[in-house]
Design a protein that fits this description.
hydrolase activity; globular; Alpha/beta-Hydrolases superfamily protein isoform 1; 8 strands; Fungal_lipase-type; single chain; hydrolase; 14% strand; AB_hydrolase_fold
Length: 346
């Protein structure tokens, strides 16, 4: 039995009957809807909903996209991603279309249904262990991204993902950025693995904990990697800093809310003259440094969730519960209260 949330006619952004690609709300809403389309593609497969019974197509067809490929996991054969092509009517405004994507590669997050949960949960564990790059699902995704960029050019491709899918899109984007290719990316509720400092209400306590954490992290980084850090002619974070993905987080979602403090703290450290400490600390995690000490440094040297730059959007609309705060549906509502900040690594 399909839920109302799967039905575009009941839950989709029907108010966006004309897309202005220069409008940030429109771009965000379409990207989120295309990610939802991947969720419903997999649910259609699980429920054996085909042709007229399928609920997924309206999630992209409403915005004049065409599904050109499904990305399928080689372990359980679930659909985890999709490649869409934008096919606007000839009557559409060409000034707006210039800002549109030609192709969008979208990745869904974890589905808590028996047919896919086991494999999805396995990937979630890989994120915690910082091993997503070693999975076959990511290899399939990365090859799809490389092939599409090679075929149509980097300016024509967007990445989008939610939760586990946001981690996939982030890793793909970082991998391409290291080669000088900067893809536009929309990352909804990306996981940030850290102590839940952002949930502390007292701002002084919160800042004190973050300051202490930065000093300890920077000190450990120098102690464990001092020689390699000093011998590098180029800051690895600086090489990635030109890539500015769009991050969308909810402060009530403890899986991604630490991004708020992560970027705000970096700004505060610059303001008090401790920018050098933070520039070193922000590239490392205590967990990753610990793993390097016990002999697994190569695997844990670069935590997936750490980013040099980002266009961060925070949803300040009160959430009823964690499910709503972590859900993809929040990102296309017309009445959302958003706060946006651009953070560039210096």
């Amino acid at each position: 039995m399909a839920s109302e949330r799967e039905d575009f006619g009941l839950s989709g952004p029907l108010h966006l009957n004309s897309i202005d690609w220069t409008n940030a709300h429109h771009r965000r809403s379409v990207a989120a809807s295309l990610v939802e389309g991947v969720y419903i593609l997999e649910r259609d497969r699980q429920e054996k909903r085909q042709e007229s019974q399928a609920l997924a197509p309206p999630w992209w067809e409403f915005f004049h996209f065409k599904l050109i490929r499904q990305l399928v996991d080689d372990a359980d054969f679930c659909i985890f991603g999709a490649i869409y092509e934008y096919k606007p009517p000839s009557s559409h405004c060409h000034d707006s279309i210039d800002r549109s994507p030609h192709y969008v590669i979208a990745f869904r997050g974890t589905i808590t249904k028996p047919d896919s949960f086991s494999r999805d949960f396995e990937l979630d564990i890989h994120i915690i262990r910082n091993g997503l790059h070693q999975t076959s699902r990511f290899e399939i995704a990365m090859q799809a991204v490389r092939n599409m960029v090679a075929a149509v050019g980097d300016s024509n491709v967007w990445l989008a993902g939610h939760s586990l899918g946001a981690a996939m899109a982030m890793l793909a984007g970082k991998t391409m950025a290291k080669t000088g290719i900067f893809l536009e990316a929309f990352l909804f509720n990306p996981p940030f693995l850290s102590a839940p400092i952002e949930r502390i209400k007292d701002k002084k306590v919160k800042h004190g904990l973050r300051f202490a954490g930065s000093v300890i992290t920077a000190g450990l980084a120098l102690a464990t990697k001092g020689n390699s850090l000093r011998s590098r002619s180029e800051d690895p974070f600086a090489a990635l800093s030109a890539w500015t993905p769009c991050l969308f987080v909810n402060p009530a979602d403890h899986l991604c809310s630490e991004y708020v403090g992560y970027f705000e703290h970096r700004k505060k450290m610059e303001e008090i003259g401790a920018g050098a400490i933070e520039r070193l600390a922000t590239q490392h995690s205590l967990g990753g440094l610990f793993m390097s000490v016990v002999g697994r440094g190569a695997e844990a040297a670069e935590p997936l969730h750490l980013l040099p730059s980002a266009n961060l959007t925070v949803n300040l609309t009160p959430a009823q519960d964690f499910k709503q705060a972590h859900g993809i549906h929040q990102w296309w509502g017309p009445e959302v209260h958003l706060k946006c900040n651009l953070y560039k690594y210096k």
